[in-house]
Amino acid sequence: MYKVSIKRVTFRKVGDRSKTLEGAVAVAKKKSNDKLPVDKMIKKFTYEGNKKLENQYEGTKQAIVHVAREKMRKFMGTADVGLGQEEREMLVLIIAGSMMQSFSLGYGLGKVEGIVDRDIYL
User: Fold this and answer.
1) Residue 71: what pLDDT?
2) How many C-alpha atoms does 51 have within 13 Å on its Cβ side?
3) Rounded to whole angstroms, what are the CA distances from 110 to 4, 6, 69, 89, 106?
4) pLDDT digit string (tens) for 65-109?
């Protein structure tokens, strides 16, 4: 049996590896809307969404794995491919991992859009 884990979504600038995200929200509130460090806020809230998915939103995580299993079954039927138990579990983990990353990034973007009061486009 495989354990579902989430890879963290990371954003990095070249040369920006040593800076921490502590206080990014406080800094953002002090600056005007045009000069917000939006990239740092997205990174911080995406990480927060990732942590909440592991702790607070356990039901959401289980639902994502369930949907991933359904997608795996649909793929096997559509592609007319027979997969062994190990390959099926690996496919479920790949699908679920990408869905969890999308959840975390969406959580982070939604929080930032609420703070800066404007749309964020990637």
Assistant:
1) 94
2) 7
3) 25, 19, 27, 31, 6
4) 999 999 999 998 888 778 888 999 999 999 999 999 999 999 999
